[in-house]
Amino acid sequence: MVDLSVARAANATLVQSQPLVAVFIGGTSGIGHYTLRALATAEANGGKGFRAYIVGRNAKAAEEIIAECRGIYPDAQIKFVKADDISLIQAVDQACAEIIQSEEKQSQDPRIDYLMLSQGGSIFLPRKDTKEGLDVTMSLMYYSRMRAITKLLPLLLKSTLPAKVVSVYAAGYEAKLYPDDLSLRDLSHYSYSQARSHMIYMHTLFLEKLAEQHQGKLSLMHIFPGLVLGPGFQRPDLPLWFRRVWRWFFVPILGPLLTVSPTECGDRMLSLASPRYPPQGTESSGATDKVVVGTDGKPGSGAYSLSRKGEAMNIKKAYEKINKDEMKKKVWDHTTKAFEVIEAGEVFTD
Ligand SMILES: NC(=O)c1ccc[n+]([C@@H]2O[C@H](COP(=O)([O-])OP(=O)(O)OC[C@H]3O[C@@H](n4cnc5c(N)ncnc54)[C@H](OP(=O)(O)O)[C@@H]3O)[C@@H](O)[C@H]2O)c1
Questions:
Q1: Which residues of the chain are modeled with pLDDT < 50?
Q2: I need a surface site. Which of 228, 299, 325, 348 has the fewest CB within 10 A?
Q3: What number does the ligand 1 atom closest to the CA of 168 have?
Q4: How far, in Å, is the centroid of ligand 1 from the Cα of 310?
């Protein structure tokens, strides 16, 4: 367990080390919002300044978050990038293009030091395909996120931090895997928890591949944040049974025991930018704290599957059941093919 005071000290060190550029896809609510607020709070105590981009649908929420962060740290430079439906790969591309253009226009040193991916939120929905051929839930929680990383790579690779990518979802929830139906098109395979299992395997394997390709430059992690009560649990598209159980049973009875406060969550998410999570090939340089074990079981190997307190999940067993190298190639080929097909204006059907 990383002590909260250690996480907060890492944030203070981070903001004092250099001006930062951060992108929050899904930053108009919940965990993205809390992490941006943690950044503004740390900057207000002696930081060197930051630029941030928040991507989401809700312009009013974005305005309020920007005002809140400027109230904490008046020099904050924060831009809202509107994306009406980021489950569409084309919408991801547009949002990323806007961020790249804005960074290149307003700075002689365009880059991204910290990228948080927390879009999505609605769970337990039945399968529903986007017009591009991806299941909406799987796109929000996996494909759109991997697309954003690949589109923003040119700016991520310019970071001297080096850059950190944090995908907030359900690390450690690997269960069953259908290697020949990664998209779960066979409806007898599809359920929300099955989709979650696929998205988590695919996260680990895709992130590992990126960590190998960008050694020394890029550290990537996915994390289960714990239960963080926020607007996400009141979304009208959540199934009615879930909202009722949540409101009448979970929040009043179990909530106080199991939840993580928004402030703690934001501080912990920001602290993932620390040298405890180095890119592959740099584990011995600059790491003042204990380096965390990567998804391949080796310390500091650049791709991480993390618990809410920032420690490595024990995922060994899940990957012992599969031929990992073969699956990594399969997941990489599947994902990049989806992107190529959709970019060509066609519908992905694999
Ligand atoms: N909170 C928790 O306890 C918890 C626990 C485990 C896992 N997670 C996972 O962590 C992630 C973040 O959770 P959260 O609580 O921060 O969720 P949240 O409060 O619902 O925030 C989700 C963000 O994604 C954006 N978004 C959703 N669908 C979108 C779409 N189609 N197009 C564009 N933007 C879209 C939302 O934008 P708008 O608000 O502007 O519409 C919002 O900014 C989710 O994947 C969630 O499943 C959360």
A1: 288
A2: 325
A3: 10
A4: 20
